[in-house]
Design brief:
Blueprint (H helix, E strand, L loop, with lengths): L1 H10 L9 E5 L5 H14 L15 H13 L4 E6 L2 E10 L9 E8 L8 H15 L4 E7 L3 H9 L3 E12 L2 E11 L11
Parallel strand pairs: 4-5
Antiparallel strand pairs: 1-2, 2-3, 3-4, 5-7, 6-7
């Protein structure tokens, strides 16, 4: 009887193993997917309706070159992928070129439009903060379109605070846009001098 139950249980279809989102360092092969995500966001932004001709858009080689530059400088450049598909990416660049600002970075996060509200941005943010802290950076800065409530909320959850507001700083999608500047300390932040 037990053998019959066991064979019936084995014959039942097993639930598919859930797909797992993995955050990892970006690779050259990720560049076309990253470019598609980026182009969607700059062409559509928070609101749809822009003429794509308004923007000078980068191409694959531009993105590859930027990525290699960041890697040479030991700056994080990561992707979130699921079953081989890039769902989003994030990176950090120097906040300013002068040596006094070498412990501060500016970051960007882009998530594929079809994968919003899945926690991809949260996973990328967490990994990016960890990578920046491990690299010895003390401050992370971001510039966010004031209309992008989801991004503002994500940054707030990760301890970023608003440190500036730039009204009517950009003109896109047929109207003036405001930008919110946010900042978060890493490690000891500004409470002690850097090592070395």
């Amino acid at each position: 009887m037990d053998d019959k139950r066991n064979s019936e249980a084995a014959a039942q279809p097993q639930p598919a193993e859930p797909r797992r989102i993995v955050v990892r360092d970006s690779r050259d092969g990720d560049v076309p997917a990253m470019l598609a995500i980026y182009l969607h966001h700059i062409r559509r932004g928070v609101e749809p309706g822009v003429d794509p001709g308004e923007f000078e858009t980068p191409d694959t080689e531009d993105i590859k070159r930027r990525r290699k530059n960041m890697q040479k400088r030991k700056m994080p450049h990561i992707v979130a992928e699921e079953a081989g598909m890039v769902l989003g990416y994030a990176y950090a660049v120097p906040f300013r070129k002068r040596p006094a600002y070498r412990y501060a970075v500016k970051h960007s996060i882009y998530v594929h439009n079809d994968h919003l509200q899945r926690g991809v941005g949260r996973m990328l943010m967490s990994a990016l903060i960890d990578s920046c802290a491990a690299a010895g950076f003390r401050q992370v800065i971001g510039y966010i379109d004031a209309a992008n409530r989801a991004s503002l909320a994500l940054h707030e959850r990760f301890g970023f605070r608003q440190v500036g507001y730039l009204p009517s700083i950009g003109y896109k999608f047929g109207h003036w846009t405001d930008t919110v500047m946010v900042q978060r300390s890493l490690g000891p932040g500004g409470t002690e001098p850097p090592q070395g």
